[in-house]
Specification:
about 260 residues; alpha/beta; TIM Barrel; eight-stranded parallel β-barrel
């Protein structure tokens, strides 16, 4: 029997472990390959803020697989079932939606991403079936269990509903969106404002109470260690483009340019 591609992110989360990720906004698959070889568990393909269309997502997925990492897409519209289906048909192994505010938002993602009877995803896989190498019977038996579902909680409404969202058990990861939360509370750019921190703590507590992994965007390795110590089990660290800029400036500042 030929099986579908396994998803080690899903396996790690189901076992109670911690996963680490980075992201890309540009469309060079080599960036994903490098992040995979570096050892990140998954690469977030940022379709909300990045320069991505289906053809570039297709290439980025191949870059992730070349580097041995899991491709997950952050879709532009959180309830766009066609965008979710198309990304999965291209071979991504997880979907992250922005602005999860209610249980209905979480349910909409699950419905779009999973096949019946758990969801209502349309049938049209290609890479997921290894281009026909995997039988339809094996594919349908296995594929739902390999899809990771993540959502950003980055609005006041989402924070207010977080206990209900976490208790629903619909998603694998609820990710603290500190940047947009700072905006929502009226403190643009102040990710460390007490209200933002309180919201993050509430999200983390709800996730821990209901056995859902909580995600956090770390800005430094030290913050990533802190987040893991707090109990976050999905930790993101900037993006490939940011690494290039930061290290370039370290070099040029050192040589006086």
């Amino acid at each position: 029997m030929t099986s579908v591609r396994p998803n080690p992110v899903k396996t790690t989360l189901d076992a109670g472990g911690t996963i680490y990720s980075s992201s890309v906004r540009l469309t060079d698959p080599g960036l994903c390959e490098i992040l995979g070889y570096a050892g990140f568990d998954f690469v977030l393909l940022d379709g909300e803020h990045g320069a991505m269309d289906p053809s570039s997502i297709d290439r980025l997925v191949q870059g992730c697989f070349a580097g041995g990492t899991v491709p997950i897409v952050r879709v532009l519209k959180n309830n766009d079932a066609e965008a979710v289906m198309h990304a999965l048909d291209l071979g991504v192994q997880g979907i992250l939606i922005p602005h999860c505010r209610t249980v209905d938002d979480a349910q909409a993602l699950r419905t779009a991403a999973l096949y019946s009877p758990e969801g209502n995803r349309g049938f049209g896989p290609a890479r997921g079936m290894k281009w026909g190498r995997v039988s339809s019977e094996d594919y349908f038996r296995e594929i739902n269990d390999t899809v990771v579902l993540l959502a950003l909680v980055e609005d006041i409404e989402g924070v207010e509903n977080i206990e209900e969202i976490a208790a629903s058990g619909l998603l694998d990861v609820l990710w603290v969106g500190t940047g947009d939360l700072a905006m929502a509370y009226g403190y643009p750019g102040e990710r460390d404002h007490p209200e933002v921190k309180a919201a993050a703590e509430r999200i983390l507590a709800a996730c821990q109470d209901h056995g859902v992994a909580a995600g956090y965007p770390a800005r430094t390795p030290e913050e990533a260690v802190w987040a893991a110590d707090q109990g976050y089990r999905a930790i993101g660290f900037a993006g490939a483009e940011a690494y290039v800029m930061k290290q370039s400036r370290v070099f040029l500042d050192t040589v006086g340019r």
